[in-house]
Structure of TRAP transporter small permease protein:
Amino acid sequence: MRPLLAVSTAIDWLNEKVGNVCNILVLAACAVSAINAMIRYAFSYSSNSWLETQWYMFAVIVMFGSSYTFKRNEHVRVEIMYLMLSERGQLWLDLIGTLVFLIPACLLLSYLSWAMFYNSFVIGEMSNNAGGLMRWPIKFVLTAGFFMVALQGVSEVIKRAAALRGEVKIDAKYERPTQ
């Protein structure tokens, strides 16, 4: 189980770094939005590329922030039944739900969105708006974002399996295995 826990730690580290980038992007999106609005109203100048940059940053925040949120156990879950279960029951519910629903769904969505990204990349798709941005990078964010959530799901499965075997204890707040 130790080699798998090392894989889980590496996945957690990756998603922590991605989450840090998303945190910075929140500030960057706010700054771009404020500056864009100020320039538009003060100088009557606007650019579609700045608006699309805001949308792209928001998409990155949502798609990559999902895996970070999942890692930190701050995602939405149906607490009514979950809280009535014992700690071991919660571990089993998390393990089964992640294996049966989350990982397959995210891998399927990642796979299905790949063709959309690839076609956009091959033709060099651009925004229809004047001064707009390339479309393929943001379409890749969709593919990569779902894959990152699936990857974090693998990490969570490893941690839950180790906890069920009594090898680690899960820190309830941050989902970190403790010795």
About this structure: The first helix runs from residue 2 to 43. Helices lie at 2-43, 48-71, 79-82, 87-123, 136-164. The mean pLDDT is 88.
